[in-house]
């Protein structure tokens, strides 16, 4: 009996120690995000990639043009986080840091720069107010306007947002054209509704060159979108009129809106496509996978981000 009580005490002591370690991770939960942003701003992934072979601290510091001591601490942290690795010959890239280079095909650097931008971070401080019933979304409460209105008035943030979205669109559309090419069979025109800077529809047109693509988004978004062969940029609001096409493609758009607004968007899409053969193609994020699955964790993180930015939640 006495030994059982002692064992329980030891267990609860160990549990408490482990819990304290967990809490320290929350105390400094922002740190990994901020230090990865710092590495991107210092162009460390690009410098290591261009160098081709591992770099010593002295060489990396001279390439960046910074003193060694702070850089050493940054690299020590990011090596512990497995963002970079240390080899006998010096610092080297990992699969993670390669995704943080600026020109890699699957680069996610712009997405990190978007998520760590002060404009996107400010609404997190309004989250509890929103849960308690404040009428303004956290983003709106922090900035006095919604995400799209803020983007219209702030071209720099709008570009950051669209470049960030494009990171994911590149990967998403590549998976779709490879995994479900039959979806595009028989189509000669596709309108990407809320297509951002046109990355996704460009991917569709490159894969199926007989398709004429229309990138449809708010006027301030399409006016800054790069020109692309086979893609016409059209500005407007999907709540007013969607340009006519054989199919309407909605990627990561419906999750931004409440049910009534989604119905309005889908009605406009229906009006834009042929009544007998038309298609609406919806691509969106869902929360799936097992409880301890990393992907499920990412889905839940995205759901929290949607809670501060827009009206809807991800579904399962
Ligand atoms: C989450 S982003 C998705 C962008 C792109 N489809 C992708 O997958 O990367 C949502 C897009 O909807 C656009 N949007 C918001 N309101 C809109 C409206 N009323 N009409 C057309 N597009 C709109 C935004 O400008 C933004 O580009």
Automatic annotation (TrEMBL):
It comes from Mikania micrantha. PROSITE patterns: SAM_OMT_II. Residues 124-309 form the O-methyltransferase C-terminal domain. This is O-methyltransferase domain-containing protein. One of its GO terms (molecular function) is protein dimerization activity. It holds the Pfam family Methyltransf_2. Belongs to the class I-like SAM-binding methyltransferase superfamily. Cation-independent O-methyltransferase family. COMT subfamily. GO terms for biological process: methylation. The active site is at residue 255. Keywords: Methyltransferase, S-adenosyl-L-methionine, Transferase.
């Amino acid at each position: 009996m006495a030994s059982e009580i002692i064992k329980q005490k030891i267990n609860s002591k160990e549990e408490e120690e482990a819990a304290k370690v967990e809490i320290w991770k929350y105390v400094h939960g922002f740190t990994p995000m901020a230090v990865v942003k710092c590495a991107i701003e210092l162009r460390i992934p690009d410098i290591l990639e261009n160098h081709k072979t591992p770099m010593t601290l002295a060489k990396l510091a001279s390439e960046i043009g910074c003193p060694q001591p702070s850089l050493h601490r940054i690299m020590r942290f990011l090596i512990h986080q497995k963002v970079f690795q240390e080899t006998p010959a010096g610092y080297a890239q990992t699969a993670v840091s390669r995704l943080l280079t600026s020109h890699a095909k699957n680069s996610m650097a712009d997405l990190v720069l978007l998520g760590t931008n002060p404009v996107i971070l400010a609404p997190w401080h309004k989250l509890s107010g929103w849960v308690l019933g404040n009428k303004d979304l956290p983003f709106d409460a922090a900035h006095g306007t919604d995400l799209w209105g803020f983007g219209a008035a702030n071209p720099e943030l709008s570009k950051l947002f669209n470049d960030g979205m494009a990171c994911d669109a590149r990967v998403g559309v590549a998976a779709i054209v490879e995994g479900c090419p039959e979806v595009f069979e028989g189509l000669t025109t596709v309108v990407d509704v809320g297509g951002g800077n046109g990355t996704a529809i460009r991917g569709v047109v490159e894969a199926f060159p007989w398709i004429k693509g229309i990138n449809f988004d708010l006027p301030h978004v399409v006016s800054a979108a790069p020109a692309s062969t086979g893609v016409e940029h059209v500005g407007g609001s999907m709540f007013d009129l969607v340009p006519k096409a054989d199919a309407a493609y909605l990627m990561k758009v419906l999750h931004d809106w409440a049910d009534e607004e989604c119905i309005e968007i889908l009605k406009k899409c229906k009006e834009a496509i042929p009544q007998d053969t038309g298609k609406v193609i919806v691509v969106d994020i869902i929360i799936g996978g097992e409880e301890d699955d990393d992907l499920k964790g990412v889905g839940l993180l995205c759901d929290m981000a949607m809670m501060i930015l827009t009206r809807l939640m991800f579904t399962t």
